[in-house]
Design a protein that fits this description.
This protein has nine helices and seven strands. It is an alpha/beta fold. A seven-stranded mixed β-sheet has the order 1-3-2-4-5-6-7, with helices on both faces.
């Protein structure tokens, strides 16, 4: 069983699935916006990350999805909403495809789509090297927030990532979210979906998400958050929380 942190005790159950640079603390800022009497949240730490750093595995999207479902079964959650950041946005789509009758709402934050990522060779090389290079990780985080944020914040994200991830897992997850193709599985989905993107994210833009999500979800809202890059839960936490809450209650 993968590790997790819990918040709240309400009827509406929510999974938070972190991204490539995240861990179980990724969605902690949401606790400022969600009533613990209304929601019960589980912030997952996937294999090789955070509190699950020593848990071995394949380190891929399918395993992330199956591990989340296993936690839901362990907690006796018959229905729940799923929220995922970046690579977690790819994994939650597999959850919704695997147990569609159990997923209430889907919230994909700066998400990777179900398709393979069309990296150019230089960018692919940078991401591969990030497995063992803090400098490459910093370049990626800084670029994904349009070089607008302080070095102290960027360094903090990178330091936490280096300390809180197993190198083997970090590299394997990247190859999975970049290469895996679920385009045939994620199709004509009835799940009520919200995609949140930062207006200052130069890569995961609203237009990119229109291409990757619009034709796959019958009920879809794509919302652009001003003042944010790739990490809206950190960059604009209260605005982010308000949009999440509105979708969960809709």
């Amino acid at each position: 069983m993968i590790a997790y942190e819990k918040y709240g005790h309400g009827e509406h159950k929510i999974f938070g699935i972190h991204g490539w640079f995240g861990d179980e603390k990724t969605f902690k800022s949401l606790e400022l916006s969600l009533d613990p009497a209304e929601f019960e949240c589980v912030w997952l730490a996937h294999r090789g990350y955070g509190r699950s750093i020593d848990l071995a595995g394949r380190y891929d999207m399918a395993e992330m999805a199956s591990d989340a479902i296993a936690v839901a079964n362990h907690l006796n959650w018959s229905r729940f909403s799923v929220m995922g950041h970046s690579m977690g946005g790819k994994a939650i789509q597999l959850i919704a495809a695997s147990v569609p009758d159990r997923v209430r709402k889907l919230i994909a934050v700066s998400p990777v789509s179900a398709d393979p990522v069309p990296f150019d060779p230089a960018t692919r090389d940078l991401f591969e090297k990030a497995t063992d290079s803090a400098a490459c990780r910093k370049t990626i985080v800084d670029f994904s927030t349009s070089n607008l944020l302080s070095s102290a914040w960027v360094d903090g994200i990178v330091s936490a990532s280096v300390a809180g991830t197993k190198s083997e897992a970090f590299g394997a997850y990247m190859r999975s979210w970049a290469n895996d193709d679920f385009s045939n599985e994620i199709n004509d989905m009835e799940t009520d979906a919200l995609v949140l993107v930062g207006a200052q994210d130069p890569v995961i833009t609203a237009s990119v998400c229109e291409h990757g999500f619009r034709q796959r979800y019958r009920q879809l809202v794509i919302k652009e958050l001003q003042g944010s890059g790739h990490y809206p839960m950190d960059e604009v936490p209260l605005l982010f929380g308000a949009e999440v809450l509105k979708h969960l209650r809709s």
